């Protein structure tokens, strides 16, 4: 068995070896190849077990069910996009969804309601669908989005949802109509131009710039006083890269920018570096972020 002195010496050598190798890492000022933005790619698994993948050149997947052919109707599906992927599709009820990278969506429909379970980011344009005729006035079939522990009941049509494992990242933004957002016993009604978010563990409401939140559907990154950590998380998913911070304090720096999602990563990095606050280096598909000296 090694003595404590020898073991300590070996550990010291390993630490020195690690530091030496880290300092000798060969970085590049630009990527090996120009990393391109997210492409239309993802997979949809239907309730019958069949799977459909987006093929190159696809712009929209449609699962709208034939009205007259009940046997051919799709009542539930699961869709997922990877890092570096995105997807636009029509759900079986006609609702249009724009899914961001690293997003999962479960949809199912029964006679009384439609429900989506979401992890990630998506923009919805909900199709109006009515319940079976009862009485004189037809009633809209409920459309509910379950985002973790947050429940969103759709009373309108156009809205955006962000839902991750970190509840503090949650957002729901309304563009048209009305939605009810519920967290436990607390609920709020959103009107167009309002957004719900989490503050100190509680759901709150604020007025926001709709152009900024409409960015996912319209093809933009819009960062309003966004931390560098938040920006790099978004870029890592969209461009399918990894991020390493050489100075963790830089993650809290805030930036404002409006950038095309169709830009190459190199173009995005050039804009961020032009602020004079940060610099980037590359090794393969890993981005190293540091503050300027």
UniProtKB/TrEMBL annotation:
Protein known as: FecR family protein
Which residues belong to any copy of the FecR protein domain?
Answer: 80-180
Which Pfam families does this entry report, sorted A to Z?
Answer: FecR (PF04773), FecR_C (PF16344)
- Ranges for domain Protein FecR C-terminal: 220-289
Q: Which domain of life is it from?
A: Bacteria
Organism, by scientific name, is: Sphingobacterium multivorum
Recall the GO molecular function terms of this protein's record: sigma factor antagonist activity
Instruction: Check the record and name the InterPro entries matching this protein.
Output: FecR (IPR006860), FecR_C (IPR032508), Ferrdict_sens_TM (IPR012373)
């Amino acid at each position: 068995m090694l003595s404590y002195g020898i073991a300590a010496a070996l550990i010291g050598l390993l630490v020195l070896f690690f530091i030496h190798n880290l300092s000798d890492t060969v970085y590049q000022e630009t990527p090996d190849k120009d990393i391109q933005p997210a492409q239309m790619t993802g997979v949809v698994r239907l309730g019958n077990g069949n799977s459909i993948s987006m093929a190159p050149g696809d712009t929209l997947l449609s699962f709208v069910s034939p009205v007259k052919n009940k046997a051919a109707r799709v009542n539930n599906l699961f869709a997922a996009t990877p890092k570096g992927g995105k997807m636009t599709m029509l759900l079986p009820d006609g609702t249009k969804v724009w899914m961001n990278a690293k997003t999962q969506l479960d949809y199912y429909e029964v006679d009384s309601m439609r429900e989506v379970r979401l992890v990630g980011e998506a923009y919805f344009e909900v199709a109006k669908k009515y319940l079976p005729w009862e009485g004189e006035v037809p009633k809209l079939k409920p459309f509910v989005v379950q985002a973790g522990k947050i429940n969103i009941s759709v009373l309108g049509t156009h809205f955006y949802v962000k839902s991750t494992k970190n509840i503090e990242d949650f957002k729901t933004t309304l563009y048209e109509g009305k939605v009810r957002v519920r967290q436990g016993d607390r609920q709020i009604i959103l009107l167009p131009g309002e957004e719900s978010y989490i503050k100190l563990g509680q759901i709150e409401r604020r007025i926001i710039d709709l152009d900024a939140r409409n960015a996912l559907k319209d093809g933009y990154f819009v960062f309003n006083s966004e931390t560098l950590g938040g920006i790099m998380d978004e870029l890592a998913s969209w461009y399918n890269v990894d991020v390493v911070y050489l100075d963790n304090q830089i993650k809290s720096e805030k930036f404002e920018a409006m950038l095309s999602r169709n830009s190459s990563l190199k173009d995005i990095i050039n804009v961020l570096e032009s602020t004079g606050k940060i610099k980037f280096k590359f090794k393969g598909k890993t981005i190293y972020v540091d503050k300027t000296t």
